[in-house]
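Predict structure. Input: 1,6-dihydroxycyclohexa-2,4-diene-1-carboxylate dehydrogenase, 259 residues.
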Amino acid sequence: MTARFKGKVMVITGAAQGIGKRVAELAAAEGGRLLLVDIAEYVQGVAAELRDQGFEAVAVQADLETWAGAEQVMAEGHQRFGRIDILINNVGGTIWAQPYDHYSPTQIEKEIQRSLFPTLWCCRAVLPYMLQQKGGVIVNVSSVATRGLMRVPYGAAKGGVNAMTVNLAYEYAPHNIRVNATAPGGTEAPPRLTPRNAGTQSEQEKVWYQALIEQTKQNSFMSRYGTLDEQAEPILFLASDAASFMTGTIVPVAGGDLG
Ligand SMILES: NC(=O)c1ccc[n+]([C@@H]2O[C@H](COP(=O)([O-])OP(=O)(O)OC[C@H]3O[C@@H](n4cnc5c(N)ncnc54)[C@H](O)[C@@H]3O)[C@@H](O)[C@H]2O)c1
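Output follows.
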């Protein structure tokens, strides 16, 4: 087993399930000292399981759609570990799948809140610590849905994440801070404990969601969804010193779909 993250303090957001949880499991096994963040209470269980296996992980619950939540998380992380080496911004995900003319103004705002603001806030909140320690690494989890169907507001949010990634990388390269993103394609995961959308799908909504799935598969050369490991590994590569000459890069992880 390699230990790419031995002694590194890593903040991983949205770590209670899905891609974020898998990133946490792999990072812990490689020596990371983890602060796992999620709005869902069962992020505590993820951290407890990792500690049971002898790894270092603590969990904190926060709403990262708010500045207060992001600021509190970074302050807690810094207080507990004395530094923050790596931030992985993973919170996000489309809530609705429908043609744009069916989105209400409230839904549009909620998509932007979910898939842009946690990354905006967390980057802003971590920078003072990374500047103080004269270095750091940020990996944002974007999406190839910047070119997709049935999720215009989500695509707009992730386009914002891409722009942020490049601009932050440019601005903070002189401070030894690298910023990259992965752009995942469709990813198979166990059923979500926290669904993106708790409402029941109407027949029409099922048809629209199916159109999203078909488009995702068709745009991938490999005509399939990826696995959690296939998403987590590229995120961890960008977070590691092996990517020391990479910054401002959006890496599509979607079987050939470039987004
Ligand atoms: N799964 C896919 O097919 C796919 C495809 C492309 C991109 N992505 C991106 O990958 C990332 C992870 O996707 P996933 O499918 O594993 O997500 P998911 O929905 O399974 O998990 C997201 C986690 O974020 C947490 N969360 C939601 N709102 C929060 C908030 N306000 N504050 C704190 N935590 C909050 C949830 O509780 C959940 O644990 C997302 O950014 C998503 O946009 C996923």
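The CA atoms of residues 100 and 152 lie 6 Å apart.
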